[in-house]
Amino acid sequence: MRISIIGTGNMGGAIASALSSAGFDTEVYDSVQEKAEALREQNENIRVLSSLEMTSGSDAIIIAVKPQVLPSLYDALREVDTRLWISIAAGVPLSVLEDHLGSGNVIRFMPNIAAKARKSVTAIAAGDSVSTEERDLAFAIASSFGTAYFLPESLFPAFIGISGSGIAFYFEMMHQMAMAGVREGIPYPEALKIVSDTAESAAALQKESGTNAIELETRVCSAAGTTIEGIRALQDRGFASAIIKAVGSAAAKSVELENKARYGER
């Protein structure tokens, strides 16, 4: 299965490495040839293409360039033949991609930055013309660098709020908890490792048990104990409201970007 990736930035490079390790016939193109060559030095199984046109004939082409770069590539991309287009450009709707690529076989990915660790959480939205076989291919590609979920495109802003951008909210909380550990006497590097391991343990327990998160929280809270005091402090300072506002703000920005892309389409 031949997969071509256009763009070898952080996300494109991570996806290429994961696909190659998963056994896909992987090739990359970047307008900055040195970036593509640097990626090949890390993984000799990845082929570097000297032109965008050489991606033609691939089973799937992944467009991994920044959204603002995409319009400058549309004319060249329309001349390329592929079974399936996959775009990771945030804020660019399927309708815009289909129109400018001249194809109905288009899928959107919304991965998060953890693709580099092969722990990305990726949302997948498929155009109406995409076959079951092509959907399966897209799912296999996304699964090579983490977990994947098919969602209606209308839910992408919500997904961005809780995952695409949401991963940064976890980083912020991890940092602040580590800093709180510093205040209590634990050096930052050690505190951050403890916080990171705790986050991983919480996620593992929830996944393994399938239990509602609030039920797990109540299990940790002993009567008149330490945890309920901490939970009360979070509630008193608007923790729940801040989280909901952060997710909503990221989702609203996503809707704004998609509307701008649609306006550009017209």
From TrEMBL:
Its EC number is 1.5.1.2. GO terms for cellular component: cytoplasm. It comes from Candidatus Ornithospirochaeta stercoravium. Pathway: Amino-acid biosynthesis; L-proline biosynthesis; L-proline from L-glutamate 5-semialdehyde: step 1/1. Belongs to the pyrroline-5-carboxylate reductase family. Keywords: Amino-acid biosynthesis, Cytoplasm, NADP, Oxidoreductase, Proline biosynthesis. It is found in: Cytoplasm. GO terms for biological process: L-proline biosynthetic process. It catalyses: L-proline + NAD(+) = (S)-1-pyrroline-5-carboxylate + NADH + 2 H(+); L-proline + NADP(+) = (S)-1-pyrroline-5-carboxylate + NADPH + 2 H(+). Residues 153-257 form the Pyrroline-5-carboxylate reductase dimerisation domain. Residues 2-91 form the Pyrroline-5-carboxylate reductase catalytic N-terminal domain. Catalyzes the reduction of 1-pyrroline-5-carboxylate (PCA) to L-proline. InterPro entries: 6-PGluconate_DH-like_C_sf, NAD(P)-bd_dom_sf, P5C_Rdtase_cat_N, P5CR-like_CS, P5CR_dimer, Pyrroline-COOH_reductase. NADP(+) binds at I6, G7, T8, G9, N10, M11, A64, V65, K66, P67. One of its GO terms (molecular function) is pyrroline-5-carboxylate reductase activity. Signal peptide: none annotated. The keyword tRNA processing does not apply. Gene3D superfamilies: NAD(P)-binding Rossmann-like Domain, ProC C-terminal domain-like. This is Pyrroline-5-carboxylate reductase. Pfam families: F420_oxidored, P5CR_dimer. Coiled coil: none annotated.
